[in-house]
Amino acid sequence: MQLKEFLKQLSEAKGVSGYEVDVRELARDEFAKYADDIRVDTMGNLIALKRGEAAPDSPRRSIMLAGHMDEIGLVVTKLEKGFLRFSTVGGFDLRVLPGQEVTVLGQQDLPGIIGMRPPHVLTQEEREKVVPLDNLFIDVGMSGEELAKLVRVGDVVSLRRTFTELANGLVAGKAFDDRAAVACIASCLQHLTTMRHTWDVHAVATVQEEVGLKGALTSAFGIAPDIGIAIDVGHGNMMGVSEVDTVSVGGGPAIGFGPNIHPQIYSRLSDTAKSYEISYQTDPIPGRSGTDAWAIQVTREGIPTGLISIPLRYMHTTVETLSLKDLERIGRLLALFIAGLDEAFAQELGLGQAQA
Amino acid sequence: MLLRELSEASGVSGHEDAVRQLILDAIKDLVDEHRVDTLGNLIALKKGSGQARRKASSRSTRRKVMLAAHMDEIGLMIVHLEKEGWLRFRPVGGIDPRVLLAKKVLIGDDNVPGVIGVKPIHLLEPKAREQVIPIKEMSIDIGASSKEEAERLVGLGNYAVFEATFGELGGGLRTVKGKAFDDRAGCAVLIELLRESYAFDLYAVFTVQEEVGLRGARVAAHAIAPDIAFVLEGTVCDDIPKKRDVSPTTTLGGGPAITFMDRSVIADRRLVEVLVNTAEKNDIPYQFKQPGLGGTDAGVIHLSREGVPSAVVSVPSRNIHSPVCVLSLNDLENTVHLMQKTLARIHEVDLSR
């Protein structure tokens, strides 16, 4: 797998929460190369299993890796004079929408744009306000009659933006939140093909994270792993934002620490990074992490959970920016962490007797 | 399609070189003479085939008709490099700051890619979500992590444009989207018009610096001293649904927009009449542009020397001055058609007072 190329494909694919089919097929093709078994669950999560080589007298243990493949998007709410009114799916900053390109998933995929009235026609008062949702329209360049045949209320709209390489190994595009994690997981699986590991690995590309961590909830229940690690994005250093609120882009995996994280998983992850000289950063998260880790931790009787964040600038926009180097490091760290998992660690975590 | 190349070329006011080269390649075999003047205007002459007519001055001459379309587009200029590697910029021409967030841009002649970032919604106080971010507070991220790294890729004074690919949307209106339809649409129309022969001397002028104050057209008109001028534009089309819908300015698919009055010119009544009359005679759809909005090169051309009878014909474009302009190819072709038919009978217009 070529990490950059895979990320580009994932980023440019459509996959708004609840409508992840396109991006799931891409992830399936990649995960399948390394997995012993692959399935899609009721909610639409993609679950690849890579079996560990457990010693015959040792209980079978498993780890779940979760990265969500859904992205925030839009949904059509009304057809009006050849234009489409819409609402948001997930947390969009309305300020980034004017002037964007979209694909309307109607009876067929329709390229469109979100219009912006030119400054020539606006009053000073209008220019000083953020354009409210009821003044934003999607334009697919068709007449009202043509549109009525092709688009219905409830049709989902995906933002469209090509992947761009910046300087220094940084890349920019849409939906790196959290397709970059899907790429990291694929990279981990690829590393594991050349390593020995005793625990089973359930690599999950989850659905509907952006609307409430839903895919992680049901997939964690279904898999019932011994431990779980979520991979998501964290705010990277950027202009106008205090360093207190960010981690460094290019500074390596940001390993989460706080109530959402099992302290020993945090320690084991950071120790692994240290011993293999992988740059990492500690990411203190005082409460709700807002990631799949939040759902996994309280599944069934509770699952020791870790969180690795990918430093990322401009989250929830079409120009999310990250460092490919960080993704490589995360793929490697995950693989090394998994290769190091043994029954002693399970006992340390106080895990119950697993099925032999 | 030439409109695609024209739209995707970079040509911010003051640096129209790439667009000019593209146009020159397209027209050089269609004209008799061409030159680039001091400011950078491309001036081409297509000599008339008609008989010279005798003027009161007894000097034998053919009418000179000037057709103008501007090559430049709005854009950005890099004005400062931060120590963290971020680039500060200012607008060139009229840009609404609200259209800049989360866009990709191409900087300088090497087209260095960058993005205009924005603080994520997660880190905003609710009140901040309601506030427009001024351009002075924005920055471009090219991936550089220091001023020195940034300097290796870009420099102060570099121009930047939106990265926007031309594309077809579709439907019966044959809509297309892209950047800079203001005024590459006019450039495309003018290039098409050069394929015909005319009785009069046609001066095709692709002007510079329209967006920063109609600078190029002023000197070109002076040099040519035309008898008649037509300005070809990509103009405001504001036909999206609105709560208080006074006028859509122009309507997409409604045909060429004829200006009778805008903020820069009162169009010559006789030229407006011949345009309207020609459209009606030939069943070409047309519309009037709402008065009182915008200005064009006609604003300076009609005041050149002792005055030049001038008119403006435009291709309506939604979302001008954004990376997602939308126009109808039907409108564009009808604009070509209307101009061809009008120019063919321009000798009928009595310019005497």
Describe the structure.
The complex is a heterodimer of chains A (356) and B (353). Chain A starts with a helix and ends in an 8-residue tail after the last helix. The mean pLDDT of chain A is 96. In chain A, helix 1 packs antiparallel against helix 5 (176-192), helix 5 crosses helix 9 and helix 7 packs across helix 9. Chain A is built from ten helices and 17 strands. Chain A has 356 residues and is α+β, with helices and mostly antiparallel strands. With 353 residues, chain B is of the alpha+beta class. Chain B folds into two domains: 2-73 and 179-348, Zn peptidases (Aminopeptidase); 75-162, Elongation Factor Tu (Ef-tu), domain 3 (Beta Barrel). Chain B contains eight helices and 19 strands. Chain B has helices spanning 2-8, 17-27, 147-153, 181-193, 215-224, 269-281, 298-301, 329-344, and strands at residues 33-36, 42-46, 53-54, 60-61, 64-70, 75-81, 87-92, 104-107, 112-116, 140-141, 159-162, 167-170, 175-178, 201-207, 228-237, 257-259, 287-289, 310-318, 325-328. In chain B, strands 1, 2, 5, 12, 13, 14, 15, 16, 17, 18 and 19 form an eleven-stranded mixed beta sheet that branches. A six-stranded antiparallel beta sheet of chain B has the order 7-6-11-8-9-10. In chain B, strands 3-4 form a two-stranded antiparallel ribbon. In chain B, strand 6 and strand 7 form a beta hairpin. In chain B, helix 1 packs antiparallel against helix 4 (181-193), helix 4 (181-193) packs across helix 8 and helix 6 packs across helix 8. Chain B is globular and about 70 Å long. The two termini of chain B are 43 Å apart. The model of chain B has no long low-confidence stretch (mean pLDDT 94).
How many β-strand runs of chain A?
A: 17
Structural category of chain A is: alpha+beta
Radius of gyration of chain A: 21 Å
Question: What is the N-to-C order of secondary-structure elements of chain A (H for helix, E for strand)?
Answer: HHEEEEEEEHEHEEEHEHEEHEHEEHH
Q: Overall mean pLDDT score of chain A?
A: 96
CATH architecture of the largest domain in chain A: 3-Layer(aba) Sandwich
- Low-pLDDT regions of chain A: none
The outline of chain B comes out as: globular
In round numbers, the mean pLDDT of chain B is 94
CATH homology superfamily of the largest domain in chain B: Zn peptidases
